Amino acid sequence: MKKIFLLLSLLGSNLFTYAQDSLSNALLWKISGNGLEKPSYLFGTIHMIPTEDYFLPKGTEECFRQTRNLYLEIAMDEMMDMSNLAGVMDQMFMANDTSLADLLTKTEYDLVSAHFEKMGLPMMFFERMKPMFLSAFGSPEMNPQNFKEGHIKSYEMEFNEMAKKQSIPVKGLETVAFQLSVFDSIPYKAQAQMLVESLKSNDEESSGLKEMIKSYIAQDLNKLAESISSEETALNPYLDMMLNNRNKKWIPIMAEVMKEEPCFFAVGAGHLGGKEGVISLLRKENFVVEPVLKK
Fold first, then answer.
1. DSSP for 142-180?
2. Which secondary-structure segment (H or E) carries 83?
3. Mapping DSSP to helix (H, G, I), strand (E, B) and coil, where does residue 8 land?
4. SS3 for 293?
């Protein structure tokens, strides 16, 4: 379960392209040139990370203070606005009365049901929920108690708090409705198989998860890309749709807002690298994108 969840975390809901350009070991990148009066910054996140592994590279807070807008994949206020979420709740559930039992064998269904029952989440409440959401909800990282007790941190929440202290607006490159629609492009059957795969591979996930977090702490985007692209999961056929198309949509938005005011962009680390990654795409638009390396 953790492996699928971490892959989604690196996407932002968010994985690297197959052909990865070699990049410096850095999560924080400075964007300048192409008519910008002041630089903006780009940061690669993991959406959920154990508190003991959370860190900010040197210089991050200094760079953050130089900006006038924070852009996340989705604005936190939009995510927390219940009136807004009410309008998209239906998108969390499968159409045509499809249930998880329709997509899995009895053995597979029993495996999933037992996992959620053990977490205190009765399966009856999740029967029609899209399996991709179940992959996230079923992860220990999404347990509210872990947040309450301080075991888990969210980079997006931390940056959101920094923005509040600096009294700068927090905006989104995407909407909740758009991110939910991305899941609709993945067949329910494939989503269900991803869920089952993640549960079956729990024993292998612990070491794999530790290696991924180790690479993230080392800010080694190339190593992360290598680890992710080598994974054989049901998610693989849909990586291009979940990653590259979204990256391309972000570039004109970023280009426009950066010319108005310096911005700080914090998105899943998986969006940064590769020939169709945000760094490469910005460079193709004649922006200078360079790592911020503070000692």
1. G-HHHHHTTSEE-HHHHHHHHHHHHT--EEESS-HHHHH
2. helix 82-86
3. helix
4. coil
**Burial readout 254-273 (b: 16 or more C-beta within 10 A, e: otherwise):** bbebbeeebbbbbbbbbbbb
CB 64 within 8 A of CB 41: yes
Total domain count for the chain? 1
Residues 49, 244 contacting (CB under 8 angstroms): no
How many angstroms separate the Cα of 246 from the Cα of each of 27, 31, 84, 294? 19, 19, 22, 30
Pull the structure tokens for residue 34.
Answer: 């192409």
Please name the residue ranges forming H helices in 141-273.
144-148, 155-166, 176-184, 188-200, 202-217, 221-229, 239-260
Q: Sign of the C-alpha dihedral, residues 152, 156, 162, 165?
A: negative
Which regions of the chain are under pLDDT 50? 1-6, 13-20, 203-204
Domain of residue 68: give its range. Answer: 2-291
DSSP string, 26-68: -SEEEEE-TT-SS-EEEEEE-SSEEGGG----TTHHHHHHT-S
Give residue 144's pLDDT: 56
Give the global pTM: 0.84
Three-state DSSP class for 279? helix
